[in-house]
C-alpha cells in the first residue's frame, strides 16, 4: 500500500484496519510506502516483489502519480479515499469509506478495467483537467487543507484578481472565453464544461465551490462532448492547468484527447459492476 502521509485525511490506524481487512481474506500487504518521504514504486519494483495489486491511500493527485510511476506493470490499482475531494474514489466505489472498499475487494465484489482519461501536454488526467486563470483557487484550497490561515487572505485576493483579470481561455480558438474550462474523461469521450464568473455574485459562488471542496458546483455551462480538443489563452501565454488537482503549465495552445489509463483500476460501486462496458 502507498499512503500519502501529508494528506489531511491520513490516518495510520485506518491504514492498519484496511490491511487487516484484506489479510482476513488472504490478501497480505507486502509493505506500506509512506510518500512523499518514500518513492512510489515503479513497474520493475512491483514485478520484482510479485505484487498484483497496489492500494493507494491518498488524493487524486497521489493516485495519478502512482499510476504514471507504475506504467508498464500488469497489476491493478485499488484507490482508497485519503485526499481532499476524493472524486476518483467516489467514481470507482461510490461515497463509501476505505474499510468498505477493502472488504468489497477482499470478497471479490469487484471489476477490473482501464479508466477513461484525458491525455495531453505530457499529462494524463483521471478525474479531469482544469484550464484557465481560476486554477488559482486551488492555492486557496491547499491553504485551507494545511491550515495556513495566515496565507489565506493573500491567496483569496490573488484568486479573485486572476479570475477577473487573467487571460480567459477558449475552446478550439473560437466561441466564448471562460475563466476556466473543465475537461472530464467519460467512457466514450471528453465532457467539456465552461465555468463562468460574470460579476461579484458568480465570483463568490465560484470561489465558495472551491472552498467547499468540489469546484464542479460553481456556475457553469455544458459545452458538449469531444474526442479531442484544443484550449488556448486570449493573451497567447501558456495556459495554467490543474491535472487531477495538481498544478501544471501547458503550452499556449493545449491539446487533449480521450484515451484509456495504462493500468487497470478496481471498480466496486454497484452501478459499475452492472455496467457491461467496463
Strand runs, count? 16
Strand % is 25-35%
Shape: elongated
Report, as a whole number of angstroms, the end-to-end distance.
Answer: 25 Å
List low-pLDDT spans: none
Which CATH top level class of the largest domain fits? Answer: Mainly Beta
Work out the helix count.
Answer: 9
Largest sheet: 10 strands, mixed
Which structural traits does this protein have?
278 residues; alpha+beta; Rossmann fold; 2 domains; six-stranded antiparallel β-sheet; 16 strands; elongated
Your description of this structure?
With 278 residues, this protein is an alpha+beta fold. It folds into two domains: 2-109, Probable inorganic polyphosphate/atp-NAD kinase, domain 1 (Rossmann fold); 125-260, Tumour Suppressor Smad4 (Sandwich), CATH 2.60.200. It is built from nine helices and 16 strands. The protein has helices at residues 12-23, 43-48, 60-69, 87-93, 98-106, 137-145, 152-165, 200-212, 270-273; strands at residues 2-4, 33-35, 53-58, 76-81, 111-120, 123-125, 129-131, 169-171, 174-178, 180-185, 190-195, 220-226, 228-233, 240-243, 246-249, 253-267. Strands 1, 2, 3, 4, 5, 6, 8, 9, 13 and 16 form a ten-stranded mixed beta sheet that branches. Strand 8 (169-171) and strand 9 (174-178) form a beta hairpin. Helix 1 (12-23) runs parallel beside helix 5 (98-106) and helix 6 (137-145) runs antiparallel to helix 7 (152-165). The longest helix is centred in the middle third of the chain and has 14 residues, at 152-165. It is elongated, with a radius of gyration of 19 Å. It starts with a strand and ends in a 5-residue tail after the last helix. The mean pLDDT is 80.
Amino acid at each position: 500500500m502507498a499512503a500519502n502521509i501529508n494528506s489531511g485525511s491520513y490516518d495510520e490506524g485506518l491504514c492498519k484496519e484496511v490491511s487487516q481487512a484484506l489479510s482476513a481474506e488472504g490478501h497480505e500487504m507486502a509493505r506500506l510506502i509512506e510518500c512523499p518521504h518514500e518513492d512510489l514504486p515503479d513497474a520493475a519494483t512491483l514485478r520484482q516483489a510479485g505484487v498484483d495489486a497496489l492500494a493507494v491511500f491518498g488524493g487524486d493527485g497521489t493516485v495519478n502519480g502512482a499510476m504514471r510511476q507504475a506504467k508498464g506493470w500488469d497489476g491493478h490499482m485499488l484507490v482508497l479515499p485519503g485526499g481532499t475531494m476524493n472524486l476518483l474514489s467516489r467514481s470507482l466505489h461510490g461515497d463509501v469509506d476505505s474499510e468498505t472498499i477493502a472488504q468489497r475487494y477482499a470478497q471479490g465484489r469487484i471489476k477490473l478495467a482501464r479508466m477513461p482519461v484525458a491525455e495531453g501536454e505530457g499529462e494524463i488526467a483521471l478525474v479531469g483537467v482544469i484550464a484557465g486563470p481560476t486554477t488559482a483557487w486551488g492555492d486557496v484550497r491547499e491553504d485551507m487543507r494545511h491550515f495556513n490561515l495566515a496565507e489565506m487572505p493573500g491567496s483569496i485576493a490573488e484568486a479573485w484578481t486572476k479570475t477577473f483579470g487573467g487571460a480567459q481561455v477558449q475552446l478550439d480558438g473560437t466561441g466564448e472565453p471562460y475563466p476556466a474550462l473543465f475537461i472530464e474523461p467519460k467512457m466514450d469521450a471528453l465532457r467539456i464544461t465552461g465555468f463562468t464568473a460574470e460579476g461579484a455574485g458568480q465570483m463568490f459562488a465560484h470561489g465558495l465551490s472551491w472552498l467547499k471542496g468540489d469546484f464542479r458546483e460553481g456556475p457553469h455551462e455544458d459545452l458538449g462532448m469531444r474526442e479531442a480538443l484544443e484550449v488556448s489563452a486570449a493573451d497567447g501565454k501558456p495556459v495554467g492547468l490543474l491535472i487531477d488537482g495538481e498544478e501544471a503549465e501547458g503550452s499556449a495552445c493545449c491539446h487533449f484527447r480521450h484515451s484509456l489509463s495504462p493500468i487497470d483500476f478496481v471498480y466496486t460501486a454497484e452501478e459499475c459492476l452492472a455496467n457491461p462496458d467496463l
